[in-house]
Design brief:
Strand order of the largest sheet: 3-4-14-9-10-13
Shape: globular
Strand content: 15-25%
Number of helices: 16
Order of helices and strands: EEHHEHEHEHEHHEHEHEHEHEEHEHHEHH
CATH class of the largest domain: Alpha Beta
Helix content: 40-55%
Distance between the termini: 53 Å
Structural class: alpha/beta
CATH topology of the largest domain: Rossmann fold
């Protein structure tokens, strides 16, 4: 299929007609739901060839979302860290505060085109929920958001935003009461009425066509970033870094650089309390092949194939699976999957806030943390591009309560204080 949304990016590893990236992906769902999913696929294939749809999408991304988002050279952070120069793709400046609005606008436009009355979704950190509620309000559809009770308490500001926007927030109190359980509940609700509503999946996960569709809508991030970084520096970056839970922001920015073999790509997973503990969500790093939520991918699972409880300080990353294209890119060696601990993420959260006046989401802080470590090992002329996928307003109260500022203070001096802070901060 010739897709105008992805005509500028590498489609050599796009899914086949069955939605597979190598052995990963596909559609493992009940026959009655497969019929509905086939309708979604046909509708998507049709609208991405429709100049009227593409014009409306482009107009909303420009005049409503605020695209293109800028790239910012984090000079003080780069100087303090030493080594390579760190640049940030500012998805935190989008309307609703994260990259999620990019695919939510597309998904709700698709839902409206298909005559759906309601959109439903899961959310962890609340960014996808806020973005979908926003798009539903804009385009006049009902909206139900499923969210684990733990995340509802943790991300209270986003819960309030969803309610103000008119969405119904449905708490999920089973299992770990976090993202995986919210996905389970949303899928069950979709099965009850797949005709009048559509499940707008929040990442590059789920049965085909969602991994492809969400990636395509997010590819605008990479297309912009590739042009912008060359205009700013005269060259492509040495490395592109993004956090990975399900993996939508990472696929969005990676997609434009897949052909550029000289550009190293790094997906940063949540190491939580440590990879040697069960308290992490490093799916690619520690997972095995399995099936979850209608797709085949790498999965943190037990011996019977049941998804394990996972953990991350970042609610948007604590998912036991990962997008199938990420699993494929890992197996062929095109993307390097690394990890950052909770503590490293909090250090980056405070460090970027103090050095640049930018408060990042805890999810994005994982990518910033890894970029800081990487920069120290590179030449000062090197360039690292980080996808700053969201802003940290939603995380402020939680971080201040659980990770007191006094324990993470960044001193204002010539930069040595920040390096000392990174190297010597005491363990809680």
């Amino acid at each position: 299929m010739h897709n105008p949304l992805t005509k500028e990016i590498d489609t050599t590893n796009a899914p086949d007609k069955n939605g597979r990236f190598g052995e990963f992906g596909g559609s493992y769902i009940p026959p009655e739901l497969q019929t509905v999913m086939d309708d979604v696929t046909r509708a998507y294939e049709k609208i991405v060839q429709d100049p009227v749809f593409l014009a409306e999408l482009s107009d909303l991304l420009t005049h409503y979302v605020g695209r293109p988002s800028p790239i910012y050279h984090a000079k003080r952070l780069s100087e303090a860290v030493g080594g390579a120069q760190i640049y940030l793709k500012r998805e935190d400046l989008n309307h609703t505060g994260a990259h999620k609005i990019n695919h939510c606008i597309g998904e709700v436009l698709l839902a409206k085109q298909m005559g759906k009355k309601k959109v439903i979704a899961e959310t962890g950190a609340g960014q996808h929920g806020v973005a979908l509620a926003t798009a539903a309000a804009l385009l006049g559809l009902e909206c139900d958001i499923y969210m684990g009770e733990v995340d509802i308490k943790k991300e209270a500001p986003n819960v309030s935003r969803m309610k103000i926007l008119g969405a119904t927030v449905i708490g999920v109190d089973r299992g770990t009461k976090t993202l995986k359980d919210a996905v389970d509940a949303a899928f069950e609700a979709y099965l009850k009425d797949p005709i009048d509503q559509i499940y707008c999946i929040g990442s590059v996960v789920g049965p085909h066509p969602f991994p492809m569709m969400v990636r395509d809508f997010q590819s605008v991030v990479g297309l912009e970033a590739r042009r912008q970084i060359q205009e700013m520096t005269g060259n492509l970056p040495q490395a592109v870094v993004a956090c990975v839970g399900g993996g939508s922001n990472a696929m969005g920015i990676f997609s434009a650089f897949l052909k550029d073999e000289e550009v190293a790509l790094y997906g940063v997973e949540p190491a939580g309390k440590g990879l040697d503990t069960p308290l992490h969500a490093a799916t690619v790093t520690k997972g095995t092949v399995g099936i979850l939520h209608g797709f085949k991918s790498l999965l943190l699972q037990d011996e019977s194939g049941e998804a394990l409880p996972v953990y991350s300080i970042a609610s948007g990353l604590d998912y036991p699976g990962v997008g199938p294209q990420h699993s494929y890119l890992h197996t062929i060696g095109r993307v390097n999957y690394e990890s950052a601990t909770d503590r490293e993420a909090v250090e980056a959260f405070y460090g970027l806030s103090r050095m640049e006046g930018i408060i990042p989401a805890l999810e994005s802080s994982h990518a910033v943390a890894y970029a800081i470590k990487m920069a120290q090992k590179m030449d000062k002329n090197g360039v690292i591009l980080v996808n700053l996928s969201g802003r940290g307003d939603k995380d402020i109260d939680y971080v201040l309560e659980h990770y007191p500022l006094v324990d993470y203070e960044v001193r204002h001096d010539n930069g040595n204080g920040f390096r000392d802070f990174l190297a010597n901060i005491k363990e809680q």
